[in-house]
Amino acid sequence: MKDIQTTRLENGLTILTDRMSGVRSATLGFFFRAGSRHEPDELNGISHFIEHTVFKGTPKRTSLDIAIEQDRLGGNLDAFTTHEETGFAIKVIDDQLPAAFDLIADMLANPRFDDADLESEQRVIVEEMKMLEDSPEEFLGEIFSREFFPGHPLGLSIAGTPKTVKAFDSKTTRKYHEQVFNASNLVIAAAGNVDHAEVVEMASGIWGSGSNGTALGELAAASPRYAAPIIIEQNENLEQAHLIIAVPFIAAADVKRYPADLLANIIGGGTSSRLWQKIREERGLAYSVGASTIMYQDCGLFSVFAGTSPDQVSEVVDITIAELKEVVQNGVTQNELELVKQQTRASILLGLEDSAGRAATLAQSEMLHGRQIPVEETLANVDAVTVDDVQSLANEYFKTETVAFAALGDLKELKIGRSRLAI
Question: Which residues are catalytic?
Answer without folding.
Answer: 51
